[in-house]
Design a protein that fits this description.
- It contains 16 helices and 18 strands.
- The strands form four sheets. It has a seven-stranded antiparallel β-sheet, sandwiched between helices.
- 35% of the residues lie in helices and 20% in strands.
- α8 packs across α11 and α12 runs antiparallel to α14.
- With 471 residues, the chain is α+β, with helices and mostly antiparallel strands.
Length: 471
C-alpha cells in the first residue's frame, strides 16, 4: 500500500489534500517560501496524529507540522522536493477543560489564539498571550515558536504561560504531559524542550495553560516622543510608577504609524500639529485590580510628570474601550502596512533594554552608510527588549535589489546585535529564514548539544527537516 493510500485509509480521503486543494498550505504568510508536498493531512485527534507519524516513519517520509501558517521565518513551509507530508492541526481545535479553581485551560494545538482568549474570558479569566495575528494563529504555532507578543512584560512568553503538554513523538507515541501543576520537580523539564522547538522534536497536540484574573480596569495611552532615548527613560519611569500593573509598552518609529495612516485612512493618530509628526511613539497599557478611577489617577500622575519633565511631548489617553482598541489597532496594523509596500528584510532581535538606544543609533548609521536610501521600519516590545528592526526599500531601490542585499544587511544588523549582547531571534524563531545564520551566533557547544537532542528525539530526521538546524 502506498503512503497516500494509507493516509486516506487512516483519516478519510476528505482529510488528505493534494493538488490545488493543498496549495494554500504550501506558501508562507510573507510569500517568501513556496514549497511542495506529497499531501496535506488534517488529523482530527491526537490518536490520528500518532497514526500519521507512525505511517510516515515506516515509509521514511518527512512531516512538516503547520498551525495557522502565520509564521515569519518559513518554519511551517515544506521544501520544494515534494517528498514531505504537511500535517495541519486545524481540526485539533477543541477546548478540553477550563479549571477555574486551578486557573488553567487545556486546549488542543489547532485552537486559534483568540478563541482561547474568548473561552477564558467567558469564565471570568484572562489568557494574556496577545499578538497581531491572534485571529488566525494557533496555540500550537505559538508554542512551537515560544511566541511573545504585547504582554510579555507582565506575563512572560508562551513558555512561561505553559504548565503541561501533550506531544506525539517521532515513534508515534503519545506523551500525556497535561499536568496543571506549578511545581513538579521530578526530572528533566520536557515541556520546555518542546516549546520553541518549531516542530523539529515532536508534534504538540494539546497544552495546559495558565489563566489569570481579569483586570478590573485598563488604561491605554499613546505618547509622542522626541527620541528613542526618551522612550527608554519613559519605560524606566513607567516600571517604577506602575510596577507589575504595567502590562504593555510598545515602541514605534513615527514612520511606521505615518505609513499606517497613509495606507489605511480610516485610522488616524490622536494628535495634531507637531505631535502628529513625532519621530517616535510609545503605547502603554496599565491593568489595575482596584478601579477605573484608581487606574486613571495613577496613569495621569506618571505620564503627566513625564510630559512636565520633557521626557514625552504629548499624550493621548483612551477614554473608552473603543478608543483603546483604536490605539492598539494602530500598532497592530504596522505589519499589514509593511506588507502593502512590498517585501522587506526583517529582523526580530532582542537587546538589553539599557543598550537599545545605542543599538538603534549605531545600526541606523551603519546601514545608511552602507546602503544609502534604505528605510528603517522599527517597532516592537520595548518593555522586554524585543525590536522588530526591519529594513525596507527607499525610492531609488527596487524590491529585487533590496532582497539581493539581504545577506549583507543581515551581516551588518546581526553583527551589531552581537556587539550589544543580544539575540538574532526574540520571538519569531529560526525556521529556514535564519537557519544558516544560526551557526555564526551560537557557540559550537550550543549547536552540538542541540544536534544531539535532535538526533536523540528524531533519529530518522523526519520532523520538519531543514528548519532551525542544518543536520
Amino acid at each position: 500500500m502506498t503512503l497516500l493510500n494509507e493516509l486516506q485509509s487512516l483519516l478519510g480521503a476528505d482529510h488528505v489534500l493534494t493538488g490545488p486543494d493543498a496549495a494554500p498550505f504550501l506558501l508562507d504568510w510573507r510569500r517568501r517560501y513556496q514549497g511542495s508536498a506529497l499531501a496535506v493531512v488534517r488529523p482530527g485527534s491526537t490518536e490520528e496524529v500518532a497514526a500519521v507519524v507512525r505511517a510516515c516513519a515506516r515509509h521514511g517520509v518527512p512531516l512538516v507540522p503547520q498551525g495557522g501558517n502565520t509564521g515569519l521565518c518559513g518554519a511551517a513551509t515544506p521544501d520544494e522536493s515534494g517528498k514531505a507530508v504537511v500535517l495541519s492541526t486545524a481540526r485539533l481545535n477543541r477546548v478540553r477543560d477550563i479549571d477555574i479553581d486551578n486557573d488553567t485551560i487545556t486546549v488542543e494545538a489547532g485552537c486559534v489564539l483568540q478563541a482561547v482568549q474568548d473561552a477564558a474570558e467567558s469564565k471570568g479569566r484572562l489568557f494574556p498571550l496577545s499578538l497581531a495575528a491572534e485571529g488566525s494563529c494557533t496555540i500550537g504555532g505559538n508554542l512551537a515558536t515560544n511566541a511573545g507578543g504585547t504582554q510579555v512584560l507582565r506575563y512572560g512568553n508562551t513558555r512561561d504561560l505553559t504548565l503541561g503538554l501533550e506531544v506525539v513523538t517521532a515513534e508515534g507515541e503519545i506523551w500525556h504531559g497535561l499536568r496543571g501543576l506549578r511545581k513538579d520537580n521530578t526530572g528533566y523539564d520536557l515541556r520546555d524542550l518542546y516549546v520553541g522547538s518549531e516542530g523539529t522534536l515532536g508534534i504538540i497536540t494539546a497544552a495546559t495553560l495558565k489563566l489569570y484574573p481579569l483586570p478590573v480596569a485598563t488604561c491605554t495611552a499613546l505618547l509622542a516622543l522626541r527620541s528613542i532615548d526618551d522612550a527608554v527613560e519613559l519605560l524606566s519611569r513607567a516600571r517604577a510608577g506602575f510596577g507589575a500593573s504595567l502590562t504593555g509598552y510598545e515602541l514605534m518609529a513615527g514612520d511606521c504609524l505615518h505609513l499606517v495612516t497613509e495606507l489605511f485612512p480610516q485610522q488616524r493618530l490622536p494628535f495634531d500639529g507637531e505631535s502628529a509628526q513625532s519621530p517616535w511613539y510609545a503605547l502603554l497599557e496599565l491593568s489595575d485590580s482596584e478601579s477605573e478611577a484608581h487606574a486613571r489617577e495613577r496613569f495621569e500622575s506618571v505620564l503627566g510628570q513625564a510630559i512636565e519633565d520633557g521626557v514625552a511631548t504629548d499624550a493621548a489617553i483612551a477614554a473608552s474601550v473603543a478608543q483603546s482598541k483604536a490605539l492598539w489597532h494602530l500598532r497592530e496594523s504596522i505589519p499589514l502596512a509593511e506588507a502593502e509596500t512590498g517585501k522587506s528584510v526583517k529582523h526580530d532581535v532582542s537587546i538589553p533594554i539599557s543598550r537599545i538606544a545605542d543599538f538603534v543609533h549605531l545600526t541606523n548609521a551603519r546601514l545608511q552608510a552602507g546602503f544609502p536610501g534604505i528605510r528603517n521600519v522599527i517597532f516592537g516590545h520595548l518593555g522586554d527588549g524585543n525590536l522588530h528592526y526591519n529594513v525596507a526599500r527607499g525610492p531609488g531601490l527596487s524590491q529585487d535589489e533590496l532582497l539581493a542585499l539581504q545577506p549583507r544587511i543581515y551581516d551588518m544588523v546581526h553583527a551589531s546585535v552581537q556587539d550589544h549582547d543580544g539575540s538574532i531571534s526574540a520571538e519569531h524563531g529560526i525556521g529556514q529564514l535564519k537557519r544558516d545564520e544560526l551557526p555564526r551566533y551560537k557557540s559550537p557547544i550550543e549547536l552540538a548539544l542541540m544536534k544531539r537532542i535532535k538526533r536523540a528525539l528524531d533519529p530518522q530526521g523526519l520532523f520538519n527537516p531543514g528548519k532551525v538546524l542544518q543536520m
